[in-house]
Structures are given as structure tokens and as C-alpha cells.
């Protein structure tokens, strides 16, 4: 897949899916799949149009809580075998009118011959454009236009905001069913206080960016993915009150046999199941005993097996 962080004239025709695609949940997947099928039928390029940064983050809004980092989103698009991704800086386009965006950028510059979007897609300055305007402009220019219906669960549309709320409530099993994959926190392994080693529970530490959704503080069943290998693990999200931690941290203990130097390497921590709330213990030994009980309960529930077998996807 070729990624463009700027708008440039395209000579080849394309089908293009529009959206920020935060999390690339089941609704997004359906939209992109429809675009890919049409691109194949027309024998032209497939493309997505998104932004390199969340509009909320770009505008400095404090409520920004994204589900997926930019690099992870680009990797996901690539795995979906999309030919092109247009991901300009939101601030470069924020003052372009809805009409100019649709006609001059999507159709005349990017050479879109079929445009796909969700039912609630907004675009242009002050988000003034919607599906009605886009339909009119496409018809005027001889471009096919498709509004893809939402995927619903329990009578409500699957959306990024709905999934964020589930994650913040600790309802990871439900959130992951709507995503159709485990929600994850990816990044570089950082140095911790190494207190866990003293009680036989060494941990891997990651920081959680301010703009990222913050899961409910507590203990989770998780998978840790290192160098392409997936390990069973338990993770604590929070401020680590027992050891007077600083800032929100993601701290993971791998259950499988594992050894090797990790600092500076990348880890992806997939949160599977919320086990209990974070709390302060009298000492590290008491914390270690609780973690052992957590692990026993998680294994009793067969959480790792359910994820490896894809059972959580059947919730939707």
C-alpha cells in the first residue's frame, strides 16, 4: 500500500472509502469491504481517505480518546490489501469548504470514480457537508456514490464512541466483539521500578499517551505480542498505588516461559478480560498473592482459549 500524507494529483482512477476509521471496527470493516469489492469489479485502485491525526487531537481538545495509533491504523489498512491511503494533516484541510473537498479534491485530484462513506459522515469546513451534498456532487460528476448502512448490535449502531465507552467501563469482551479483534496498546517497552522481580512477578512496562483511550484501572487477562509471538499474560492498567507509581501505566506479566532483554523493543498488549479493579495492597507479597488468584480465576474461565478459538467474535 502506498501512503500519501499530502494531496497530489492521481492519474489512475480509484474507489475511495471516507472516514477517520478510529479502531477500524466492524462498521468500518463493512464499509472498506464494500469499497474493495467495487474496486475489484471496476478493475481500478482501492483507496481510503483519513487523517494523519484525529481532528480532536489536532484541535487540542481535551476529550480526545482515540482507539488506535496512526501507525497501527496504516498497518491494518495494508493488511486489508488497500492500494492507497490518503492521510493528510487535518489542519491543512480544515478551512476547505465541503463542496471544494468533494469536487476538487476527491473527484478531480484523487480521481475517485466511486465514493463510499458511512451514514453519519461529515466533511468540509465546520463539518458542513453530509451524505446529501456528497450524493449531489457525485451525481453531477458521474461518480458512483454509496452510503453503507451501520452494523448494529443490540439495536444500536457499532461506533468508535460506543467502543471507547465500553473500554473505559472495563467491558473488554464486549468491546472486542464490536471490533472483531482484541483492543491493544502498542509501544516501546520502558524502564519500571522492577519491584515485581523481587516477588517473582517480573513485568513489562508501557506508557499510555494522553490522547489515547484509558481503560478502566485494574487487572486484565491479556496477550503480549513480542517479535511476532503471542504470549498469555496478565496486565495492570493504572497508577500502581501499592508502589506509589506516577502517571497511567500499562504493566504486563507474561505467564509463558520467556527470557531476554526487552528494553527499547516494541510490545503490543491486547486486553481480553477485566478481572478486578486496581487497589492498594499492604505490601508487594500481598499484591503477588492477589495476582496469583487473578491468574487462577482467568484460567478457570478459559479466557485465553476463548480468544484463541475466536469465541468472543460470536457475541455480535
Topology:
Blueprint: E1 2-4, E2 14-18, H1 26-42, E3 45-49, H2 55-58, H3 70-79, E4 84-86, H4 90-93, H5 98-109, E5 112-118, H6 131-140, E6 144-148, E7 152-153, E8 156-157, H7 160-168, H8 172-179, E9 184-188, E10 204-207, E11 218-226, E12 229-238, E13 249-254, E14 266-277, H9 284-300, H10 303-308
Features:
single chain, about 325 residues, alpha/beta, Rossmann fold, Elongation Factor Tu (Ef-tu), domain 3, six-stranded parallel sheet, six-stranded antiparallel sheet, about 30% helix
Description:
This protein is α/β, with parallel strands linked by helices. The chain folds into two domains: 2-153, HUPs (Rossmann fold, 3-Layer(aba) Sandwich); 159-315, Riboflavin kinase-like (Elongation Factor Tu (Ef-tu), domain 3, Beta Barrel), CATH 2.40.30.30. It has ten helices and 14 strands. The chain has a six-stranded parallel β-sheet, sandwiched between helices. Strands 9-14-11-12-13-10 form a six-stranded antiparallel β-sheet. It has a two-stranded antiparallel ribbon with strand order 7-8. A hairpin with a 2-residue loop joins strand 7 and strand 8 (156-157). Helix 5 (98-109) packs across helix 6 (131-140) and helix 7 (160-168) runs antiparallel to helix 8 (172-179). The longest helix has 17 residues, at 26-42. It is elongated, with a radius of gyration of 22 Å. The two termini are 30 Å apart.
